[in-house]
Amino acid sequence: MLSIVVEHIFLLVIVTLISVLQNAFFATKVEREGKEHNNKTAFERVSCANRNCMDSYPTFLAVMWCAGLCLNQAPAAFAGIIYLVARQKYFVGYMGQTSQSTPGFLFGKRVLAFLILMCIVGIFNFLLVRYLGNDYKDTMETITNAASALLLIP
Amino acid sequence: MLSIVVEHIFLLVIVTLISVLQNAFFATKVEREGKEHNNKTAFERVSCANRNCMDSYPTFLAVMWCAGLCLNQAPAAFAGIIYLVARQKYFVGYMGQTSQSTPGFLFGKRVLAFLILMCIVGIFNFLLVRYLGNDYKDTMETITNAASALLLIP
Amino acid sequence: MLSIVVEHIFLLVIVTLISVLQNAFFATKVEREGKEHNNKTAFERVSCANRNCMDSYPTFLAVMWCAGLCLNQAPAAFAGIIYLVARQKYFVGYMGQTSQSTPGFLFGKRVLAFLILMCIVGIFNFLLVRYLGNDYKDTMETITNAASALLLIP
């Protein structure tokens, strides 16, 4: 029975694993910076970047899993990958200069908004199917697949 | 196959979405307060309130989803909504005066305790059904539905 | 239908409940230490230990649930219990002396690595079964059950 479930979530699990490895990478960076006591400013900057990433991590996980369960796992996992790339850019940019951090943060917001939209579409779709018997889920999945490609442009 | 799953969790997904939007609202408040550099105390207060809310956020999500999966989604989602209202009151109260923050915190504790109780009841019920063949799940659901209404009183 | 799902996750739910109770215990400790204003250092130490535990909490939850869903719940729940024991030792050690905190942290890392390995094995197994029709899941479960016992040794 579980293999049926795994078929619908394995992409989400892979993205979650990548995000966990990224968390471990961030934590290692903070730990290594904390051991070198010569520059206090760099440690504070890395620690703050890590804190910002960690604060939004449960939100990201919850939204990605909801979107993947409600509608389709492929675009949700794709958006999750883009979010992780944006987070990586944000973290690395934060380590260098503060001015580079803003675009990464804005990018993350857009991906999260897209995932929230996917959740809402999925739930509306479910309610429509249940109470009206109208089924346009295939159309919606095509649209979200196309929309997730649009996220790459800017 | 997924539509069967969605039928049992869509209320939980809606509550999760509302909580994510609330998180975004909190983050926006902190960001706006951080840009106005005139009063340091207000920023620290808002930042601390946001931190407290964020620290208990994964705990709340985990308990709500466990309670919804183990027993029934309706009372779990209802308790989640009450928790979010309590968090909103806590955050707004923290921005004003510190003395107002304590009731909100106590309220959140009670909702979490109720959700934990729901989890325990659900698991006990499952184990009883599995090993004894005794089924009183309908009774339990009625009781929890009634109990979730009692949370509104104080 | 949900009782089938609960049968595959109830151990994970129990471990999640224990971790939530542990979180409540940590929060109570921090709150009690914060009210006694005589020693500032002890409060900062407890607060820092609580923050470290909380930062890695969503990561732990995500990895444990993924491992439990992908492969088998029994070793995942067992590793989760070991992680909680390690966290308890870490927190109590942090309250005493700083030198005792490092082994607890290393122990937590090993458990997380084991859970990540379980996820990867589960996904590889699923992909192999799907595309090659080869099934060695029973062998894998035996190996992970044996491996989870090895975690107790050091």
From TrEMBL, chains A, B, C:
Required for leukotriene biosynthesis by ALOX5 (5-lipoxygenase). Anchors ALOX5 to the membrane. Binds arachidonic acid, and could play an essential role in the transfer of arachidonic acid to ALOX5. Binds to MK-886, a compound that blocks the biosynthesis of leukotrienes. Homotrimer. Interacts with LTC4S and ALOX5. Coiled coil: none annotated. It is a multi-pass membrane protein. This is Arachidonate 5-lipoxygenase-activating protein. GO terms for cellular component: endoplasmic reticulum membrane; nuclear membrane. It is found in: Endoplasmic reticulum membrane; Nucleus membrane. GO terms for biological process: leukotriene biosynthetic process. It comes from Oncorhynchus mykiss (Rainbow trout). One of its GO terms (molecular function) is leukotriene-C4 synthase activity. Gene3D superfamilies: Membrane associated eicosanoid/glutathione metabolism-like domain. The keyword Transmembrane helix applies. Keywords: Endoplasmic reticulum, Leukotriene biosynthesis, Membrane, Nucleus, Transmembrane, Transmembrane helix. The chain crosses the membrane at residues 6-26, 60-86, 111-132.
